[in-house]
């Protein structure tokens, strides 16, 4: 399995987790998994575009992934639609609220996050997955 395929598989698993947590009423955890679905899909997109971690490091920093995905793949290369530009930032903010703030996320927050993650993955999947001839 290629590295982009591995990260795309992880993203798919995270999205399934987000949907499952939403269905079980665990909205904070649903938002957490929706964020990671998008984060992992963005890594797959970067790898597919031959963009690696900063300075050849092994790990993917969250700010770096967001900046490279938006800056290089959306703005410079126009490889992905503009509507995906705010998804990672919005989901990271929601994840921080869900994980660290003294408030509970609602069904509306979580269902919208899961829907955005589903759309984000669908677009990246179409680009990263090899097309049959």
Comma- or semicolon-separated keywords:
133 residues, mainly alpha, Four Helix Bundle (Hemerythrin (Met), subunit A)
Overview of this structure, please?
The structure is a single chain. By secondary structure, the chain is an all-alpha fold. It has one domain: Four Helix Bundle (Hemerythrin (Met), subunit A). Helices cover 71% and strands 0% of the residues. It contains 5 helices and no strands. It has helices spanning 3-23, 27-48, 62-76, 87-100, 107-128. Helix 1 (3-23) packs antiparallel against helix 5 (107-128). The mean pLDDT is 94.
Total number of β-strand segments?
Answer: 0
Please tell me how large the radius of gyration is: 14 Å
Give the CATH class: Mainly Alpha
Q: What general form does the structure show?
A: globular
List the helices and strands and how they pair.
Blueprint: H1 3-23, H2 27-48, H3 62-76, H4 87-100, H5 107-128
Helix pairs in contact: 1-2, 1-5, 2-3, 2-4, 2-5
Short description:
This protein is mostly helical. It has 5 helices and no strands.
């Amino acid at each position: 399995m290629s590295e982009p395929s591995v990260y795309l598989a992880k993203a798919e698993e995270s999205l399934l987790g987000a949907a499952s947590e939403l269905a079980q009423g665990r909205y904070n955890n649903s938002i957490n998994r929706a964020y990671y679905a998008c984060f992992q899909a963005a890594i797959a997109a970067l790898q597919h575009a031959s963009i690696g971690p900063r300075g050849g490091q092994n790990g993917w920093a969250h700010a770096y992934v967001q900046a490279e995905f938006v800056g290089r793949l959306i703005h410079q290369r126009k490889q992905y639609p503009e509507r995906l530009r705010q998804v990672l930032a919005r989901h990271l903010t929601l994840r921080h609220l869900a994980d660290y703030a003294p408030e509970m996320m609602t069904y509306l927050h979580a269902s919208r996050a899961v829907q955005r993650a589903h759309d984000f993955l669908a677009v990246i999947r179409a680009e990263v997955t090899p097309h049959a001839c």
